[in-house]
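Thread amino acids onto this structure.
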């Protein structure tokens, strides 16, 4: 098996006949099989070997797309026509999609090889990938620990070298947090940068689709391919898509803001030290470091959980046993069928969030919770707008700790929710964020650092990460 640094190197090896794409795909299929205990995949598409042969021919003829031969795994909340779409939930366990998500179609159009669908927290609700009907995903660095969530399978597939890259989704940190726990790059783009068509909705005003990769070149290429306006998604933006790959290596110095609220108590000592080391490096290479404040940060977790659960309670109403998916046959009337189908079909975390959301939207509580949270969201966005008048990037930890042990936080939902303390604010503000792996702690567990930029400035995040 030839080693290659990034996609363009792999393409060159295939073009010159030093690497066979079919053998490369077989290698990944064998790796997935030998690392089955990680539980990263819900479904593996062994028929992708046939695609590999056709794509290899195109590469040699010079007619192949930009992602020709890149082997990519897809989170099981994104639709692929005639393939299972379970969202790791019992309620959709037998469901097959009748169309393909725009982001996935764009990968296929550029000749990527789709190798399978990855495990995730049920309906993308969770920070540890323990809430899946297919069982938990294990961290490749330590199998007793979680990989992060909700896109745990996608992160592990890349970190454990089961594919070249993967797609995940990020509603409150679900790309950046598992990327940090698994030691890889993960990019959450600006809200509206990538079409959500074909993504199973959780929090419609928060959900974003983004890539995981082991190197920044592939990450830039993937975000370039999947971005852009889509008529099928009314929230997708018509901002022009920049040629990220050709601008990636431009050297530039950045004004970097350090928000004091993100370095307060609760942050693991070793993570703080690792980030401070990076800050010193950044200073010495000519970047300007500025202390800033994002004063409403303390409200980001409650605001996030009020608004996303409200959107989830509305979005998940369609899974009722009547339209598609699981139906409880042992019911006497329509109400019984709804109640029993949803009770048996959904897992406990999804039920918890539906109930929270229904509560905050109910008459008498709507103003006290939902409307107030919408106002606070606006204030949080204003904090970022003000900060970006002074700085190009904001630098923070991605997570308060490194990967925790499986089962360690399952009994305390609040403690679990606090794992997203540094990531939810980017989703509330709709801005892009990236996880950059910056080393390991004394136990050999990966440490991640987060950079955030203003809306539609993914380029700065990619250039900064590339320089780092």
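Threaded sequence (468 positions):
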């Amino acid at each position: 098996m030839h080693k290659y640094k990034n996609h363009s190197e792999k393409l060159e090896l295939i073009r010159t006949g030093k690497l066979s794409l079919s053998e490369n795909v077989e290698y990944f299929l064998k790796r997935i099989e030998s690392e089955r205990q990680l539980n990263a995949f819900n479904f593996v598409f062994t028929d992708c070997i046939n695609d590999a042969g056709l794509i290899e021919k195109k590469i040699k003829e010079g007619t192949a797309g930009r992602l020709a031969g890149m082997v990519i795994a897809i989170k099981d909340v994104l639709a692929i026509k005639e393939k299972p779409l379970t969202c790791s939930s019992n309620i959709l366990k037998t469901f097959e999609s009748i169309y393909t998500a725009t982001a996935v179609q764009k990968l296929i159009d550029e000749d990527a090889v789709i190798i399978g669908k990855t495990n995730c927290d049920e309906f993308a609700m969770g920070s540890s990938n323990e809430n899946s009907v297919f069982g938990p995903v294990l961290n490749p660095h330590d199998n007793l620990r979680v990989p992060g969530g909700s896109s745990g399978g996608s992160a592990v597939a890349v970190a454990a070298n089961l594919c070249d890259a993967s797609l995940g989704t990020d509603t409150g940190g679900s790309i950046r947090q598992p990327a940090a726990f698994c030691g890889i790059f993960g990019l959450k783009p600006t809200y509206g940068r990538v079409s959500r068509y074909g993504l199973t909705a959780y929090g419609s005003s928060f959900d974003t689709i983004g890539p995981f990769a082991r190197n920044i070149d592939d990450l830039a290429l993937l975000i370039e391919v999947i971005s852009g306006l889509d008529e099928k998604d009314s929230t997708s933006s018509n901002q022009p898509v920049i040629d990220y790959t050709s601008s990636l290596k431009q050297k530039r110095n950045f004004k970097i803001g350090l928000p004091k609220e993100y370095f307060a108590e609760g942050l693991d000592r070793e993570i703080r030290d690792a980030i401070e080391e990076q800050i010193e490096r950044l200073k010495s290479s000519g970047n300007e470091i500025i202390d800033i404040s994002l004063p409403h940060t303390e409200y980001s977790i409650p605001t996030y959980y009020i608004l996303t659960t409200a959107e989830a309670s509305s979005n998940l109403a369609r899974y009722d046993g009547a339209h598609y998916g699981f139906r409880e046959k042992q019911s006497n009337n329509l109400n019984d069928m709804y109640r029993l189908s949803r009770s048996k079909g959904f897992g406990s975390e999804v039920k918890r969030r539906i109930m929270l959301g229904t509560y905050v939207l109910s008459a008498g509580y709507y103003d006290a919770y939902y409307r107030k949270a919408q106002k606070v969201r606006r204030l949080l966005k204003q904090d970022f707008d003000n900060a970006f008048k002074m700085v190009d990037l904001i630098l923070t930890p991605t997570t308060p700790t490194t990967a925790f042990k499986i089962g360690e936080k399952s009994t305390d939902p609040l403690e679990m929710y606090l794992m997203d303390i540094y990531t939810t604010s980017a989703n509330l503000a709709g801005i892009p964020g990236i996880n950059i792996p910056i080393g390991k702690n004394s136990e050999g567990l990966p440490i991640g650092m987060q950079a955030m930029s203003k809306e539609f400035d993914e380029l700065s995040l990619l250039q900064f990460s590339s320089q780092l």
